[in-house]
Design goal:
Blueprint lengths: L2 H58 L2 H42 L4 H42 L3 H41 L2
Length: about 200
């Protein structure tokens, strides 16, 4: 057997391993995305309940309950912002992995699919960073008005409520993006399995 023939046979034998590795990676990403989606939806619902509880405490004039709920809201916001930063880092890592896959692939339909995956991952990473940055900005503004909220100043209380609504909007967008990412991972798995 010539050296060239041995290389061709080795390439053919190694190709299924590469496909199996790609499919395994896609499945791990889908499992991660499913878990994140469940967590994101639960986080949004929990924050909605806390904001509703804050509204009820304010309506009832219960200052002690209002203060207690605000402490729980602050903790939930910190947790959600930390998760947003983690998601942004994960999306950046996925972009790097997709770029490496494009460099490894031979020209053809698979490479086109992988280039689209890189574009999708770049878009996801940029949007994720933008959401994480906005969450942090909202938290910074909430901290800056907290003394006025505690003093019961109507404009600060109204601004706090608007910021909480905006944070919820960003959190919902994050959950929606996780659902989109899960769909993209499913598509990538189908493409990888169909590849010759």
């Amino acid at each position: 057997m010539t050296r060239g023939m041995a290389l061709i046979i080795a390439g053919v034998l190694l190709a299924p391993l590469s496909l199996e590795a790609q499919v395994a990676r896609d499945r791990r990403e889908m499992a991660t995305d499913r878990a994140q989606l469940v967590g994101d939806v639960a986080d949004v619902r929990r924050l909605e309940r806390l904001v509703a509880e804050l509204d009820r405490a304010r309506t009832a004039g219960n200052k002690a309950q209002e203060q207690e709920v605000q402490v729980r809201i602050a903790a939930a916001l910190r947790q959600e912002a930390a998760e947003g930063r983690r998601d942004a880092r994960q999306d950046t890592r996925e972009t790097g992995a997709a770029r490496r896959e494009v460099r490894r692939d031979a020209p053809g339909a698979g490479r086109r699919d992988d280039r689209r995956d890189v574009r999708d991952d770049r878009r996801d990473a940029a949007a994720s960073r933008q959401r994480a940055d906005r969450q942090q900005a909202i938290m910074n503004e909430l901290r800056s008005i907290q003394l006025n909220v505690a003093a019961g100043k109507a404009d600060a209380v109204a601004r706090q409520r608007a910021l909480l609504d905006e944070f919820l909007t960003v959190a919902k967008a994050d959950a929606k993006a996780t659902g989109r990412e899960l769909g993209e991972d499913r598509r990538e798995t189908r493409e990888d399995v169909r590849r010759p």
